[in-house]
Amino acid sequence: MNTRRSARPDAVVLGAGLMGRLLACALAQRGQKVEVFDAGGPDAEHAAARVAAAMLAPLAESAVTELNVVRMGQHALARWPQLIAGLAQPVFLQREGTLVLWHRQDAPEAERFAGQLARTCAALPSLPSARPLDGRGIAALEPALAQRFAQGLYLPDEGQLDNRALLAALAHQMSVLGVTVHWHAPRTPAEVDPGPQAWLFDCRGLGARPQWNGLRGVRGEVARVHAPQVTLSRPTRLVHPRYPLYIAPKPEGVFVIGATEIEADDLSPASVRSTLELLSAAYTVHPGFGEARILELGVQLRPTLPDNLPALRLEASRRMSINGLYRHGFMIAPALLDAAIDVMDQGHSPLAESLGLAVHRSESAT
Q1: What's the CATH number where 114 sits?
Q2: What total of structural domains would you count in the chain?
Q3: What does pLDDT average to over the chain?
């Protein structure tokens, strides 16, 4: 036992945001000795995942992303229940679909949105198609919205999870599995020497900017409110040409309302303008948000590569970087996790090839 504790790790993970925690738990579950270094603490205060709404909505997101990301989201919808079932602590997860709404004046934008979803389903027939709703159909799904909207769309099977409960459960699972975690201990790849037989995984997000050309932060602002008088039961999206909105209901009357998307590398507090737009749009969906209590106005930067797509990169033998999850972290993280394990085991990933996930190799990688 003492020899095992003093031995070098089988794998070192830099960064303990969503990707780093998932990877550390998966490796430890396989019996590997894992060591993790992170700039923050167990609460993931520096991670974009802490602020995210954690919606699992590949069809809805197809309006703003590429088909390969949609495929990754499909993969994750099946994987998240399996991953969560293996955790010692419970995590809220639902797959009650997504409700898409719009006001009458925004019907042209809604038509464009619906057209994009139809093209996605034509390209990916395995995706359930969006179902048109009239006012009665909306009321049947969400009685609290009866007579407030005349038209909408229902996207079956999409879901969401509780991001903060998941991050906490993953931190606890690392402890259960014996992962050695160094909180508040940032490291670069050059500062770590796990040995030639160990894997080194760089999951630092924006912390890895010196290693990724063009990696940038895209600012997002999200409101968390407590509104026990609002009874929405599934994620709801409001189509709008200027500030599209999502409302994600979490346990105990908490709602995550977001999100602005600003090409700015700026972590200053949320602006008045963004806050007014988010909250006023939510109020038009349900007037009960007017009496909600603001718990937090969160701001975070999403790590984004020049093409807005995620990537794995083999830097050298047993050295891998994972980055560029952008606004889709929870929706695609299981796909990146499974592809990374593939590469680790086989040297390549059939899954990554089937999903269209980029796996780059430097000349020194073998």
Answers
A1: 3.30.9.10
A2: 2
A3: 94
